[in-house]
Design a protein that fits this description.
- The chain is built from 16 helices and 39 strands.
- The chain is of the alpha+beta class.
- The protein folds into three domains: 147 residues, 2-Layer Sandwich (Alpha-Beta Plaits), CATH 3.30.70; 191 residues, Jelly Rolls (Sandwich), CATH 2.60.120; 334 residues, 3-Layer(aba) Sandwich (Rossmann fold).
- The longest helix has 25 residues.
- The N terminus is likely disordered.
């Protein structure tokens, strides 16, 4: 063991005791190691193991090696900003052992470096604190902290937070007085109490709107629905001052007040260009927070928003840089506020922060200098994608906006599909031993190994997805789902999970289901999942509509929410976010997209139909064509034929406005480099036909010798279990 007198020190630390006795400790020329044959205690073994691990971490992260020879320099694991330990806490603990020359903390790292003016002080600190769990809150504010200490040759240089601002960002410190700050906070407190029944609370903050309601998701407002009252008079002084000093030229007409508890934040985003003019204003009250600005080229500039400060996002900072606040309870800031100094870093706890964000609505299209991020200019330059009116056009649409997309994103897609859905697992495990299963549209093969007592084969249109299946040891092949190269009646069971709704005409969707049933033997069962137009049923929203819970980087989840970080154009707003979306699988002209399966379902069976059966029968027997909204125009379908209309790009995490649409998928550059094929575009659009209630049953009933055993709604999906009837 490195530390002499370790047993005497464990559990007896307090500041006065160490100050009194520190000079009586015997300092060796080297830290003592265990004597050969001497048995180490359990605590000593644990401390040594943790120490070795921390040394490896330091070498891996910083390329710095520790030393077995005592020196003035200490490496202290678990004393870093990444552990929630502040510079002041490190100083208060370690200054009892002697004069400290320097303390260095690095952003987001779980360790600190302490430099003493003498070797004796460093050895004394090491003897006392190595392997010791600190008391919370008497000694440290973060619970469960144990220091593991090693000597070093030298302490690395400190890192300071860059003080530069994004181009176009105006930062006004102490722009209002403390009295004015209290007036703003008292106003919001009063409004919150008066409107408790209508006050909206998002997962990441409490929010209230004035002038116009700010619509999250598309980051837009509805100019046809102004709110009563306009901007509150408490804001007049602030806005008058900003206009008088020339910071803004137009008076804002929309205000959003957000209140954040410690640990809450804002997802990084660029406010939509078209709804608002240049010059977004944000007033910070109550507590500081660090707002992270990120440029598309990778630059990252954190800006500390102090209480009573105002920022105005203009030009590049408004239209190009994303801005957001990481959800955490403390911020890493410079230890000194001296401008331009190379300060060390420390941790400052957040309090309750209230922000007043002012915007001026825009009446016309945006003509900014950033067309790649501008929804107005993108809309005018985008080529319209039309619904097909022929078999050839349908095949071309699906090839470009289904097959080619999934070849590009196969690796990333597979990484977001790792947890089987419970109702599908239930179907597979109900199959008898020795049954032959055909998974038509198997994707990455996550269902092929569920039931070890059956034989499973899979097929998919995507070569890259089939390759992933092969690497996992599954029996798979590439094929077009409209022509599966299996003989009639070969399979005891078939599944088509999240597949059929990538077909762009009714005839092709019906053909896909017929092909599944052709492969199935008489008496065999098939399970089909399709994405539902109704993403809210019985007042319960699907996961697709629910707001995402922000989690720490690196955490795994069964849902796509934590695995598919997506940049999407939502009504023109480019938003960096975690997007919960459909679980798609690409096969032939089919590639599916269904919402994560949950336990709560709405079910009907052949024996006990729900009331919605009547609507199915009416749809089946009615001579009236079904009216479908596409983009801003209406068209009619009759016998599967549909007039040619423009496909709209869906706004992620909102209700579907029409059944035929394009859904964005953004592939990050890091993930693109891992793909077998790499395209030029970062943003892909996938075609979907989302099914209305009863539509799947109607489609299945058109196929002869098929009985619907059960159909149900499963958290954003319409599902059906079919049985192939025996030949008469």
């Amino acid at each position: 063991m490195y530390i002499e007198n370790y047993n005497q020190m464990i559990g007896h630390y307090n500041h006065a005791h160490y100050l009194k006795h520190s000079m009586s400790w015997r300092v060796n020329s080297k830290m003592s190691a265990p004597v050969r044959g001497e048995k180490m205690t359990k605590a000593e073994r644990k401390a040594l193991r943790k120490q070795v691990k921390s040394k490896h971490t330091l070498l891996k992260h910083e390329g710095i090696e520790t030393s077995s020879t005592p020196s003035k320099h200490l490496f202290v694991a678990n004393a870093g900003l990444g552990n929630g330990v502040s510079r002041d806490e490190v100083d208060s603990i370690f200054n009892w052992f002697g004069e400290i020359a320097d303390i260095v903390l690095l952003p987001e790292k779980p360790y600190a470096f302490v430099e003493y003016t003498s070797v004796d002080a460093a050895v004394a600190a090491c003897q006392a604190m190595h392997g010791r769990k600190l008391k919370c809150p008497e000694e440290i504010s973060t619970p469960g902290i144990t220091f593991y200490i090693s000597f070093m040759e030298k302490v690395p240089p400190p890192i300071s937070i860059v003080s530069a601002l994004p181009h176009g960002l105006i930062y006004l410190e102490e722009f209002i007085t403390e009295e004015e700050e209290q007036d703003f906070l008292e106003f919001f407190k009063t409004q919150d109490a008066d409107c408790a029944d209508t006050q909206k609370t998002l997962k990441h903050r409490k929010v209230k709107h004035y002038g116009f309601e700010f619509i999250y998701g598309p980051n837009n407002v509805d100019l046809e629905k102004p709110l009563e009252g306009g901007i509150p008079t408490v804001c007049d002084g602030l806005l008058d001052k900003l206009m008088a000093k020339g910071y803004i030229q137009q008076r804002p007409d929309q205000l959003t007040i957000n209140q954040y508890e410690p640990g809450q934040g804002i997802p990084p985003h660029v406010d939509t260009h078209s709804p608002f003019e240049d010059g977004l204003i944000s007033l910070s009250l109550g507590s500081q927070a660090v707002m992270d600005f990120r440029h598309p080229d990778g630059r990252h500039l954190p800006v500390v928003l102090q209480p009573r400060s105002v920022i105005i996002m203009t030009g590049e900072s408004r239209y190009l840089w994303t801005h957001g606040i990481t959800p955490r309870k403390a911020d890493v800031v410079s230890a000194s506020s001296t401008e331009g100094s190379q300060d060390s870093l420390t941790l400052v706890s957040r309090g309750v922060r209230t922000s007043f964000t002012f915007r001026k609505t825009r009446s016309g299209p945006c003509q900014c200098k950033f067309p790649e991020q501008c929804d107005s200019q993108k809309k005018s330059s985008q080529e319209n994608i039309l619904l097909p009116k022929s078999e050839q056009e349908a095949a071309q649409l699906e090839n470009k906006h289904v097959h080619e997309v999934y070849e590009e994103i196969a690796g990333h897609f597979s990484g977001t599909r790792h947890t089987p859905w419970p109702r599908v697992v239930e179907f597979l495990t109900s199959l008898p031993d020795g049954a032959l299963l055909a998974d038509i549209g198997c994707g990455n093969g996550k269902y092929l190994g569920i039931n070890k007592n059956i034989f499973s084969i899979g097929c998919d249109r995507s070569f890259n997805l089939v390759k992933i299946c092969e690497e996992r040891g599954h029996e798979v092949f590439v094929c077009d789902a409209l022509s599966v190269p299996l003989r009639d009646g070969v399979a005891d069971a078939c599944i088509s999970i999240a597949v059929v709704h990538h077909m762009s005409t009714q005839e092709r969707r019906q053909h896909a289901i017929q092909e599944v049933l052709r492969v199935l033997r008489p008496g065999g069962k098939a399970l089909i999942y399709v994405w539902a137009l109704e993403q809210e049923l019985h007042k319960v929203k699907s996961n697709y509509l629910k707001e995402i819970k922000m989690k720490q980087r690196g955490q795994q989840s069964d849902s796509e929410v934590e695995n598919n970080e997506t940049v999407v154009v939502e009504n023109g707003s480019q938003v960096v976010q975690k997007v919960s979306g459909p679980d798609t699988q690409c096969v032939g002209t089919l590639a599916g997209c269904c919402q994560e399966n949950q336990s709560q379902t709405s079910t009907k069976t052949a024996a006990g139909q729900e009331s919605r059966d009547s609507s199915v029968n009416e749809s089946n027997s009615s001579e009236k064509p079904h009216q479908v909204k596409v983009g801003e125009m209406n068209c009619h379908t009759e016998s599967g034929a549909i007039s040619q209309k423009i496909l709209a790009v869906h706004v992620n995490r909102t209700k579907f406005e029409q059944p035929d649409l394009l859904v964005p998928w953004h592939l990050k550059e890091k993930e693109k480099r891992d793909q077998t094929t790499v395209g030029d575009s970062k943003l892909f659009h996938r075609y979907y036909h989302v099914f209305e209630e009863g539509e799947l049953e109607v489609l299945c009933q058109k196929i002869p010798k098929v009985r619907i055993v059960e159909s149900y709604y499963d958290k954003g999906n319409w599902c059906a279990i079919l049985m192939k009837e025996n030949d008469a």
